[in-house]
Amino acid sequence: MDLNKKTIWITGASSGIGEALALQYAKLGHNLILSARRQTELNKVADVCNSLGATSFVLPIDLSQLDNPERIVKDALAITGKIDILVNNGGISQRGLAVETNMDVVKRIMEINFFGHVALSNALLPHFIKAGGGQFAVLSSLTGKFGYGLRSTYAASKHALHGYFESLAIENFKNNIHVTMICPGRILTNISINAINGDGSNYGQMDDGQKNGIAADMCANIIIKAIDQKKREILIGKKDKLMVYVKRFCPAMFFKIAIRLDPRK
Q1: pTM, whole model, 2 decimals?
Q2: Is 154 a catalytic residue?
């Protein structure tokens, strides 16, 4: 048995950072469980992963409708027998003023970005405890560290992940369970194209920030190193990640900068 080979479960694996992570982990020879809503796209990613030498399995899930997460975890364990790392990556972004965002949209974003990950992680936690350890990698955002225009609920969902999973890590340190919070800034993916407006309609545009962002495969490499080193938190970005430090050390300056920035750029 190759003791270095792990079983890694990735949500949101059909595109973007999730797909990039799957491909990079496949090159390293790990076993993969790939989850997202779109089974056809997942099958394509799985085929590529298998061609790279990985053993990958497709397990479609919808984070907004996890009525029975325990069954989903049972299905995942039935496929591979064990899970070493759960990468909570699936999510949806927002482009809308708070005053224009209806509550159905607020609830949808929170269901996908927060409640879905919490439900899946809590259902998997007993397996980690019984196995003597495990790791959660949680895709937050730089916006999980500060508020930003047109992102009120998105920022709230990411802030909530930090509070929840930091608490989980403290509670389960004795169980050899680790949490790595990952905070990407502008990454070249379709996150803005797939974002939703305040009325729930599709935003459908590539923001300049995404166009000029870090390549998804480069982002994936940084994430994998952070997970391997069991880092508690990592910031990924260019100049945008400096805003985290401005907010921390000069909050008044942060606010002045934030209100002047165009949140669509």
Answers
A1: 0.96
A2: yes
